[in-house]
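S1.2 Input.
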Amino acid sequence: MRNIPHRVSSLSALGALAGLLLLSPAASAGDVTLSVLGLEPAAGAPEAVATAVTEALRQRVTSSTGYRLVPGKDLVEVKLVFSCPDEAPPCMTQAAQSIGSAKIIFGNVQPVGTDAFIVTLKILDAERGVVESWISEQITKAQAAPVGLRAPVQKWFAALTGQAQPGTLKVTGGVIGASVWLDGIQAGLMGADGLTLAGIAGGQHQVTVSKSGYEKWERSVTLASGATEKIPVQLKAIDGAQAVPLAPDTEPATSVPSENEPAPAAPEPFNQGSRVGAWAFLGLGLVGVGLGGYSSYKVSSINSNLDPYRYKTLDQNELNYVKNQQNTGDNYTKLQWVGYGVGGAFLVASSVFLYRGYFAKPTDMAAGKSRSNLIVLPAVAPGNIGALAYLAF
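S1.3 Output.
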């Protein structure tokens, strides 16, 4: 009789555990077990990017109905353990079965230049031992962050699993030249027909439109699978700026994918040539002054070498040595004045171009063209060579 309480306690615990398992959504018989192996960074690709893409995919699996995430190891480790360097389906199937997953997602990240990466993903069905589908898409360095990966990962997961078809966002209205941002990543600029963003994964997205002189416009949009969503935009001017609204119902002539559209190059400053000239003259001036300083050092060194011979009778060898040192000293003296003169002239020219390149306004530049010019002339005097710089008004 003393064992009865223990039996009751044990049966109660088993019943509670069974109830939790039955109520747990992760234990639903309809869920497909899916594991995301850590992506392999190819040579030159940062490991942080591969890790960020892997974690974004795992979070996507966790938040998707019908799937249950199974913890998986890195692809590199799996290939070593199961000896499958070429990621052959039989070997990857064995790896999936070893971790108890019906399907696995694996792939790699390869660098493209210094500012982009190509992400290649495959999904394998372990029951059939075949790769069901695969994708390979380029992302920018800015998209490789957790926020920027949200939209691409939605599209990749939908394409791999056949869960949904990508849709299209048509941003209309607004102001020509306004920047359009999708989920924190710049997607393009507004044109005369607005901006069309194709290949967007279904789900919730944040659209932001901004331009200097206007208040920022933001809206959360839910895009259905394979649907086209029109987003009318109206920017409000700040400080009296006049908006040039576009027709909100205007359909774009062509549908151009703009997810990776580069922003147009910034216009070259009107005084770019003066800026380049300023730094060029500054460099030449420093070289000239440096040459003068080095020559001064050599003259001082030669004078120190000749000090012991100034107050004594010299033989022929000593006379030859003194004469040779004097000739060398004269040459360095000339180089000294040339270095200081030319270097100083270039420094003066640099200061003029610095002003014209960084401080002068276009009106000052136009007025100054007819009023002043920098003139640099060589200067030659007995025993000296240099340069003379002056401004002519």
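S1.4 Remarks. The first strand starts at residue 32 and ends at 36.
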